[in-house]
Amino acid sequence: DIMPLMKSSGILTSNGGWSVKEFVESKTDFPDFVGTPVVVGEGLATSSTQTGPARKGEKAAKIHGMPASANSVAAIVCAMDAGIGNLEFCNLMEGAHLKPEYLAKSAFHQIPLFEDSDGYCVAESTAILRHIVTNYMPSL
What we know:
Elements: H1 20-26, E1 61-65, H2 70-82, E2 85-89, H3 100-103, E3 113-115, E4 121-123, H4 125-136
Parallel strand pairs: 1-2
Antiparallel strand pairs: 1-3, 3-4
Helix pairs in contact: 2-4
């Protein structure tokens, strides 16, 4: 069991109603999606994406996601353990991932999304994990 080894694993069981455990226990039915669909490749331009090396001394990175998302929680716990950042709650149930400011960072409007303090973004959980471990936890 890896839970005792990860100092940030408490987010999986207790996080203000949004941990995996709390979320699953509280939800019995999800509402139908209401809104305008977003077509990838149309609409907002993503040409303003930041590039460059990882920030030395990063402490304010955000992992946009939900603790109930298995894809998000690994990136959240990894960022917390690396000491570089924390969860930035993105409530999919309320459509936060479809808002223009989020779409400007992630054209595919999915979670998780890593955003460092200078605006550099990485999408997809495996890519985020590789980015964090490579740049902030090289001893692993």
